[in-house]
Amino acid sequence: MAAFDFSRPNSRFQLGLADWHFVVELAERNGWKPAGTVFPETPAELELFERISDPEERESAQKEDQLLRDYFSNSGQRVTEGDAEEMAAAIEQALGDIPDHDAIGTKDKRDALPHRIAGYMRDMPGDQPMPGIRDRISVFEWFSGGEKQRLRDFIEFCRAGGFNIN
Fold first, then answer.
1. Are 68 and 77 in contact (CB under 8 A)?
2. pLDDT at residue 98 greater than cutoff 70
3. How confident is the model at residue 143 (pLDDT cuts 50, 70, 90)?
4. Which of 21, 54, 76, 102 is the most exposed place for a label (fewest CB within 10 A)?
5. DSSP β-bridge partners for residue 15
6. Are 117 and 110 spatial neighbours (Cβ–Cβ below 8 Å)?
7. Mean pLDDT along residues 119-127
8. What are phi and psi of 78, to 5 degrees?
9. How far apart are CA 25 and CA 75, in angstroms?
């Protein structure tokens, strides 16, 4: 299972691929406006970028840098303290909508399809059918039952400050 490791000094949290996509989806549904991630820029990194003199090459490097600043590339990018706090508040706002019982029932967890991943799948060539709408697992079902506590734990992790995505 692909995983995302979130870390800061003396603290670590891990979520699977679908978990993280659903966390972001849930936060966005509840008003979180992602600020974008940042990279710690060392003097050496800045100097290297400054040495790129070709305008096209510099533009390409800037585009690549922006792609790495998203929330899904696990490239060591950092979620700021303020962004983490806002994410936690948005997720916490949704807790009342998430069932305390296991709402997945007989659905196959392999049919978990966060909106962002569904968009990727629609654009992929091939004959892999997407799960029917009734078979899909919603963000609320995904975190229902015992998984709701993991969401609470992640809220607590976010409230402790910014973190890196690895």
1. yes
2. yes
3. very high
4. 54
5. 4
6. no
7. 48
8. -115, 135
9. 20
Distance CA 19, CA 38 (A): 22
- pTM for the whole structure: 0.74
Going from the C-alpha of 34 to that of each of 24, 27, 53, 80, the distances in angstroms are 9, 9, 32, 10
The whole-angstrom separation of Cα 139 and Cα 136 is 10
**What single letter denotes the amino acid at residue 50?**
E
The residue length of the chain stands at: 166
Q: Which two tokens stand for residue 130?
A: 């997407």
Query: Given pLDDT bands bounded at 50, 70 and 90, which one contains residue 38?
Result: confident
Asked if residue 155 lies in contact with residue 92, where contact means CB atoms within 8 angstroms, the answer is: yes
CA nearest 18: which of 115, 104, 92? 115
Would you say 27 and 90 are in contact if contact means Cβ atoms under 8 Å apart?
yes
59's tokens:
């533009």
Please spell the DSSP secondary structure of 95-156, one letter per residue: GGGS-SS---TTS-GGGB--HHHHHHHHTS-S--PPPPTTTSBPHHHHT-TTHHHHHHHHHH
The phi and psi torsions of 148 (rounded to 5 degrees) equal -60, -35
| Residue 133: partners with Cβ closer than 8 Å, 6 or more residues away | none
Phi, psi angles (nearest 5°) of residue 12: -150, 145
